[in-house]
Each structure stands twice: as C-alpha cells, then as structure tokens.
Write a structure and sequence with these properties.
Layout (H helix, E strand, L loop, with lengths): L5 H6 L9 E5 L2 H4 L7 E18 L10 E21 L3 H8 L4 E10 L4 E9 L12 H10 L1 E2 L2 E2 H14 L5 H15 L1
Helix pairs in contact: 4-6, 5-6
This protein binds succinic acid.
C-alpha cells in the first residue's frame, strides 16, 4: 500500500453526511490533541491490542531511520483503552495528513466508561503498509525507540507520554509499560 495514505483516506467516506463523528485515539491521539473537538472522553474498543509495530518516517523517525509508533493488531478477547473525541468532518483533512504514514481510517464500535456505545472512526496501520515493521521483543522495541527521533521530536517522548496518559486513565497495558521499563533502564545508563 502507498506510502502516503491521504488520498486513500479521502476516498474512504466512512461517515456519510454525519456532522459529528466519534474518533477513537490509542497512540499519540491520546496525548496530543492538536485539532478542534466538541467533547472528549475515555473509551475502549474490543478485540484490538496496541502494539509498537508501526514505523514512523515522518514524526518520530525519518525514512532512513524510522521510529516505532503504535498501531492496533486484531486480537479476539482483548481490550484497547484510549480516548474518544467528538469531531466535525473538517478535522479529517488535518488528521489524514497527520496519520498519512500508513494509517487508514476504519469504522469501529467504542464503549465509554458509563457503558454507552457509539460507532466511530479509528486510524490503523495494517501490516500491508510500506512503513510497517512488525513484531519484536519489548526490549528490542525499547532499544529502537531509544535511538530514534524525527520532526515531531524524540521517539522516546511518544512512548513515555503515552505510558503517562494510560496511567492517568488508570489503564493497564503490559506491552507499553514493559517497553517503558526497558527504556528507563537505557536512559539511566
Ligand atoms: C492514534 O493515536 O489513534 C493513532 C496513532 C498515532 O497517531 O499515534
């Protein structure tokens, strides 16, 4: 799949003529909301796991030395916690640009803390995109993140801010917290 997903995402009109859409964020969209929204609240989606298996050429790395950022992997029986934003359609030009390095819009059902559910959108980088890196041990991922940086800043900032945000939300994520632990050890050396 193309390196830049903006055109594909523009053609995927998944919200019809809806004027308000719920967007589910699970990575940098949790801690960096650089777009207008009407409302935001914690939410989860079922049967997906957050994994640092996506390469970043444009934010936390470069094409020659990609960083590692989060994507979602289908895994029945699991839950991924994140933040939901109620947005208007105009916001998607900005979001498509921000998520252009391999992420595609998908529809998803999300569940809020009060048990209410809503249909919405989520950006997922699937394994057929050119920047996809795939599985590695948490220790290896931490080493990779430790040495990467890109136009949006050091790669470790992404991981550490995400871990802090998940703690603020009282959410457990063994994958993220294990990478964080390895990263903290590397930073101490
Ligand atoms: C997301 O946060 O929902 C997508 C991945 C990212 O931008 O980090």
């Amino acid at each position: 799949m193309a390196h830049d997903t903006q055109a594909i995402n523009r053609a995927r009109n998944l919200f019809g003529d809806q004027q308000q859409i719920w967007l589910f964020g699970y990575g940098s969209l949790i801690f960096k909301a650089d777009f207008d929204y009407l409302e935001r609240k914690p939410a989860r989606i079922d049967n997906w796991s957050r994994r640092f298996w996506q390469g970043s050429h444009d934010h936390r790395g470069t094409p020659g030395a990609p960083g590692r950022v989060a994507t979602l992997i289908e895994s029945p029986g699991t839950v991924c916690a994140g933040m939901a934003y109620l947005v208007t359609p105009e916001v998607f030009d900005h979001l498509d640009h921000r998520e252009k390095n391999g992420y595609l819009r998908f529809t998803t059902e999300m569940t809020f803390h009060d048990g209410e559910q809503a249909q919405g959108l989520v950006y997922i980088a699937t394994e057929d995109n050119e920047a996809y890196l795939g599985p590695a041990s948490e220790e290896h991922i931490a080493q990779h993140i430790f040495s990467a940086a890109g136009p949006s800043g050091p790669n470790d900032e992404y991981l550490l801010r995400l871990a802090d945000s998940l703690r603020d939300l009282n959410e457990d994520d063994p994958h993220v917290y294990s990478i964080e632990e390895h990263l903290q050890a590397l930073k101490k050396d």
